[in-house]
Design goal:
It comes from Flavobacterium algoritolerans. With about 650 residues, the protein is of the alpha+beta class. It is built from ten helices and 35 strands. Helix 4 packs across helix 5 (about 355-365) and helix 9 (about 485-500) packs parallel to helix 10. The chain is globular, with a radius of gyration of 28 Å. The two termini are about 55 Å apart.
Length: about 650
């Protein structure tokens, strides 16, 4: 056996030596002493849109679907397993819905008639089930009006698919009129597909509304707050901004279905439920049970931005419904309420507690301003109708808030007539920041790393607001978060970083998706009812965002930027806070590349850190079974004089970090 083993080792060594001997060798130069331009703190951020069940059923930790019975089918999400809905005389009971028309925002409630003292039950299915964890505590709340004290007890239980009880509590309803009740109980085992069973003891009628269930363990332990594991993934990225609430969801399929921020603040119970515009958008993945309760509203978005240390970037309707749908327009003479919404939002975010909207913010628990600096007008609108409306918004906002930075849009595509017209007109208007979107093939991202090299340095700054490599085609249900997409985005991002003088903000899109309830792929984060993980694309974004730096410095090959020559892409920064020089290298080749980086201008410590993100197969991706299959590895390395020598694996993203003396 020994001779064979020695032979194998020798052959392996010869093969490796031959492989590295044939690897591409490249000499790069980095000028560490001279700043090309400052990197904006907002360079890498996140964009949240309520698509793929990202809010209700996702980030917002509410576990009850249709908690206030306001869906178009008022009992959607609720079952009555022991009720004959066609007979009031022979059944154990029946639940129906009643509309109280005097309540404009939450008119429906559930009226339950119990005929059998042994118990009538209702079951809520949750958002594709409810994820519960053994020994974790859950907080239930509901409103009830117990007519004539008919119902003696309400029993609340977690059950599994076999109706086994996985935790139990109870409430004794004591009032004839509406009253709120709370209870807490503990799950006895972990279950991804639990449901909530509510059983009534007694005979007679009881009215129910706002039946709500949250884990006690939420982000920052906020009552009825956000899912801790999802926010943690965002927090770990150290995003410079949070763009919200969309996306096409801002516009709505119709103007009546647009996102109206004023309906998403104040008392959660008074926030008006709205059908989600992605409800039936795609025939490949209809979601008729997709609604917005707005428990995650504008106050919560601002609060989340603050938690993440990110600048809030709200986007508002400009009076144009989605042009891919109805394209409905508000007449120019009726635009004032839309403009006023923008002015009032700034007051809500920044106004003193003596102002009407500042007082609303304060009463919600945040007396201090949110320090809003950016506001977006429209999402992906295009054409003369958009420019005409943008002018009105820009004039009004600047008149009252001259320091507010306005983000405008160049339409849904990164080229073509819509784009050319929009950019031309916005330049004439001296627009401050223009939002560009691109959903393209991995090859496009590699080929467009030089996109911003030729942009006018005196023109508008750029917000790369939505981008993601599409492995198959735009909006295809077969798109994957594969490694080729991820490293191709990294190659493109070196171009964004190299042009930081023009590009001030960037964000991948969409941000997240429910494993079973998605509409659009690919997505940065994936979650189910119990777990969440970052895709390979997430680790690319995180690697760039956490190594953003403060100053762009030049990295060149033969005096020219490294933009894909021999399938190599590069950018370099220094960080005045951490006193580091950071070099980002992307090898999109199927073979390794030997790189010598000559670091000139600043004395550096001899020991550095090298972080590598790689995978041998273009189709590799992370999953619930293997959530960190593609994730960074870190090790030390030593400078040789002023040179950093390293071998870049095939299909890899590498970050070199060196401390300045």
């Amino acid at each position: 056996m020994k001779p064979n083993l020695i032979t194998k080792i020798t052959l392996c060594g010869l093969l490796l030596n031959g492989f590295y001997a044939n690897a591409q060798k490249t000499n790069l130069e980095v000028n560490t002493a001279t700043t090309v331009t400052k990197i904006q703190p907002t360079m890498y951020g996140v964009f949240f849109e309520d698509i793929n069940f990202a809010a209700d059923g996702g980030l917002y930790a509410e576990m009850i679907k249709n908690r206030s019975f306001e869906f178009e089918a008022p009992l959607m999400g609720w079952e009555q397993p022991n009720s004959d809905k066609h007979s009031f005389n022979t059944t154990s009971g029946i639940a129906t819905t009643v509309k109280a028309l005097e309540n404009k925002t939450n008119p429906s409630f559930c009226r339950v008639l119990i005929n059998d003292a042994k118990g009538f039950s209702m079951i809520n299915e949750g958002f594709r089930g409810m994820g519960i964890k053994k020994d974790a505590k859950y907080n239930l709340s509901l409103k009830a009006a117990n007519h004539n004290g008919a119902i003696k007890k309400i029993i609340i239980q977690f059950i599994d698919k076999n109706k086994k009880v996985l935790g139990e509590t109870s409430i004794v309803p004591t009032a004839n009129d509406w009253k709120g009740y709370n209870a807490q109980f503990t799950a006895t085992q972990t279950e991804a597909k639990a449901q909530l069973k509510i059983t009534f003891e007694g005979n007679g009628t009881i009215d129910l509304d706002m039946i709500s269930l949250f884990p006690e363990d939420t982000w920052m332990n906020r009552k009825n707050g956000m899912r801790k594991d999802i926010v943690q993934l965002l927090y770990d990225m150290k995003p410079g901004f949070l763009r919200f609430p969309g996306g096409c969801i801002v516009e709505g399929r119709t103007l009546a279905q647009r996102y109206q921020w004023k309906k998403t603040v104040g008392d959660v119970e008074k926030r008006e439920t709205l059908i989600n515009r992605w409800n039936t958008e795609f025939t490949h993945k209809p979601a008729p049970d997709y609604f917005q309760t707005f428990g995650l509203g504008f106050f919560e978005y601002f609060q989340l931005s603050e938690d993440l240390g990110a600048q809030p970037l709200p986007i508002l309707s400009c009076g144009m419904a989605c042009q891919f749908n109805t394209g409905e327009l508000v007449p120019m003479e009726e635009l004032d309420p839309y403009v006023q919404d923008a002015l009032d939002l700034i007051e809500f975010a920044n106004g003193g507690t003596e102002t009407p909207w500042g007082r609303v913010r304060s009463e919600m628990g945040h007396p201090k301003p949110f320090n809003l600096k950016y506001i977006g007008v429209g999402n992906e609108q295009w054409g003369p109708d958009y420019i005409e409306r943008y002018k009105v918004f820009e004039k009004a906002i600047k008149a009252k808030y001259p320091k507010m930075i306005i983000v405008s849009g160049s339409g849904p595509f990164p080229e073509g007539d819509y784009f050319e017209y929009g950019m031309q007109e916005l330049k004439k208007l001296n627009a401050e920041i223009v939002d560009e979107h691109y959903y393209k093939s991995p090859q496009w991202f590699r080929e467009n790393a030089t996109r911003y090299d030729s942009y006018d340095r005196k023109g508008p700054k750029i917000f790369a607001g939505e981008y993601a490599a599409q492995s198959v085609a735009i909006a295809s249900p077969d798109n994957r978060n594969n490694w080729e997409c991820a490293f191709s985005e990294a190659a493109f991002m070196t171009g964004l970083e190299r042009n930081a003088e023009v590009v001030n903000l960037t964000s991948y899109a969409p941000l997240m998706a429910h494993e079973e309830a998605w509409q659009w792929t690919p997505d940065l984060l994936w979650f189910n009812n119990l777990e969440a993980y970052g895709s390979a694309n997430y680790y690319v974004q995180k690697l760039f965002a956490t190594n953003r730096g403060t100053d762009l410095i030049a990295i060149t090959k033969d005096g020219k930027p490294v933009t894909g020559q021999n399938n190599l892409f590069a950018s370099a920064v220094k960080d005045s806070n951490s006193k580091e020089v950071i070099v980002k290298l992307v090898n999109t080749s199927a073979t390794a590349q030997e790189v010598n980086v000559d670091l000139k201008g600043t004395k550096l410590q001899t020991k550095g850190t090298i972080i590598t993100l790689t995978s041998p197969n273009l189709q590799d991706e992370n999953s619930f079974a293997n959530p960190k299959k593609i994730s960074p590895t870190e090790k030390g390395f030593n400078l040789k004089g002023d040179k950093a020598q390293t071998s870049l694996p095939p299909y890899s993203v590498t970050v070199l970090k060196l401390k300045m003396k």
